[in-house]
Amino acid sequence: MTKLILKIMMFFVGIFLTLWGVIGLYSFIGTKNYIHTVCTVEQYNSKRIYRAKKTIYENTMLISYETDKYGTLYTTLKSYYPFRKVGDKLALWYDPNEPRNIKIPFSEGILYILNTVLGLIFISFGIYIVKK
């Protein structure tokens, strides 16, 4: 009975990951009017956080980017890529009407694609095990 619950949970985790990835990729459809530019990592901070007897590293970066209307803007983002360093140049898209609304296509795209692929693997594995 416990194995059946585990199989069903694996299937639903796969559905959740796949939906998260597809919705994330779908969010790129609204970016066709975004302006493409390059941003620079000005600061990179890695904090060690202790949660529930675990050590978690939280990485944040301060980036700067040039806009046509507002000049140089700065913002702080979480970094999911652990090998960033100060001075890195990243592709960035921003909304010309709301320049604080930004996307870093490489980082976000990989995250959403990875979630979709893992979700599909979990779903197929769950279906395969249940049929067995």
Task: Characterise this structure.
By secondary structure, the chain is of the alpha+beta class. 39% of the residues lie in helices and 36% in strands. It is built from 2 helices and 5 strands. The chain has a 5-stranded antiparallel β-sheet. β1 and β2 form a beta hairpin. α1 runs antiparallel to α2. It is flat, with a radius of gyration of 19 Å.
Would you kindly provide a brief summary of this structure?
39% of the residues lie in helices and 36% in strands.
Strands, helices and their partners?
Layout: H1 2-26, E1 35-51, E2 54-67, E3 71-78, E4 89-94, E5 102-103, H2 105-131
Antiparallel strand pairs: 1-2, 1-4, 2-3, 4-5
Helix pairs in contact: 1-2
The tally of beta strands, per DSSP, is: 5
Strand order, largest beta sheet: 3-2-1-4-5
**Strand portion, in percent?**
35-45%
- Biggest sheet architecture: 5 strands, antiparallel
Structural key phrases:
132 residues, alpha+beta, 2 helices, 39% helix, flat
